[in-house]
Amino acid sequence: MNYNEVGFRHLEAGNYELAAQAFNDAIEQQPNDPTAYVNLGTLLQSMDDADRALRFYEKALTIDPAFASAHYAKGALYFAADQLVEAEESLRLALLHGLDDADLHFMLGLTYQKLGDPVRGIPRLKQATELNGVDVEIAFQYGLALAQNEQIEEAAEIFEQVLLLEETHTDARYNYAIALAFLGQQEACYTELETVLAYQPNHTLARDAKAKMDALLK
């Protein structure tokens, strides 16, 4: 029996006690396999027990210092705790040890952005969008990073892609409107702001931006 698979089925169903038992069984069956330690840590982290989760990630890395999933899980835990320097180190180690998926690039990109390092952050977010072209949040955060780095045309293109994926994403549409304003397309900006407010009448930023434009038109 693959206890790790059983554990994940219980975890997805919200049966935490059964999931924990299955992961413990996996550890007893193969105590030198780091996988179950990471899985049990992930379960504990989902239950807001970060301290115990970290101990299981560390145990996995004691068994296999190059176990990329443990480095990633540790990085995600640090990111959630806003320990960005530690998060960057762990996520970078996950990358160096062979993990190459959209979630890793996305989280590493966000970490660099929060550290004020767009030179390293933007390429990671770009890579995440290339690996997962249908994830709305990944694309949106990539667009924001481009806009914050004053790459306005590129940001506008990404926000357009987000809106193709989710037409009612009001934050993406608002940022698209602002990008259009910076590009000198005032009428298009105004139209997008109206659309934002049609979808979300209490969108404060869009309402304020539209009010400023209305005042200028008087």
Automatic annotation (TrEMBL):
It comes from the Bacteria. PANTHER family: TETRATRICOPEPTIDE REPEAT PROTEIN 6, UDP-N-ACETYLGLUCOSAMINE--PEPTIDE N-ACETYLGLUCOSAMINYLTRANSFERASE SPINDLY-RELATED. InterPro entries: TPR-4 (IPR011717), TPR-like_helical_dom_sf (IPR011990), TPR_rpt (IPR019734), Ycf3 (IPR050498). SUPFAM superfamilies: TPR-like. The lineage of its organism: Bacteria, Bacillati, Bacillota, Bacilli, Bacillales. TPR repeats lie at residues 34-67, 136-169. Keywords: Repeat, TPR repeat. This is Tetratricopeptide repeat protein.
